[in-house]
Amino acid sequence: MAFVPKELITTTSIHTSRTIMFAELARVMNYATASGNFHDSLGENVVGKRTKSNLDKTNILLQKLYTFNPQYAPFRAFAYFWPMAGETDQRIMAMLLALGREPLLAESVELVLQTRLGDPVTVEQLLAGLEHRHPGRYSTSSAHAIAQRLASSWKQAGYLEGKVKTRRVQPQPQRYAVTFALLLAFLHGERGEFILRSKWVQALGLPEAEVRKLAADAALHNLLQYQAAAAVTVFAFPQLFNTLGLHGLQS
Fold it and tell me: Fewer beta carbons within 10 angstroms: which end of the chain, N or C?
């Protein structure tokens, strides 16, 4: 699975200084979803930082990861699903949105998802992967700190657990996270069976049969249209596109 867009390969990673910051993201989303004034909420320090310099840096990095831009179709859908989704789905959706914008996190997907449930995913493994892909780019101390932050991000998303020994676990996404993954694939040009094989859907960590089951459930709740007959699979989002005005927005 190639999760890293070419244009992000040389982009400075969030994980050189922070994680996916789910707690801070949740505060912004919970505060601002009703009004839609996400940028205003950042200025009001809903993330609770004690100093202006820390607040400014946090806000910059949150915007880099999640944009808070209603004209960016993935975020527009993310904000729509947020108040309806449970915390597990919110955490998974945050990871899915971040994966498209954060290169070092995207590079760690294969290691995490290909680890069997219950097996360890260690900082040392993440560090080895980082050094393999970026030999000599980071100092020893910086590389180790990045690996620690990557492990923390996957814990925040629900794919790892444990304080001393970190092991692979599988969160149980429901209809909103699955719809968001399918929609991200659709927005990036995938169609039919290719949506199921897309990096977004693969990042759910679920067998295809389970994804199809959850897609059917989402269809019953008018979140998408899903048809499967013989070798033909169709996903469409006409009602969602109309509700959110997604036509013509950047993806």
Answer: N
Percent of the chain as helix, strand, coil, to the nearest 5: 55, 5, 35
Nearest in space to 175 (alpha carbons), one of 81, 242, 48, 50: 81
Q: How many angstroms separate the CA atoms of 46 and 87, rounded?
A: 19
| pTM for this predicted structure | 0.92
Backbone angles phi, psi at 10, to 5 degrees: -100, 5
Return averaged pLDDT per consecutive 10 residues of the chain, 251 residues in all.
Answer: 37 87 95 82 83 89 92 94 97 96 93 96 97 94 97 98 94 97 95 94 96 97 92 93 83 62
If one counts every other C-beta atom within 10 angstroms of the C-beta of residue 52, the result is 9
- Taking the C-alpha atoms of residue 137 and residue 141, their distance in angstroms, rounded to an integer, is 12
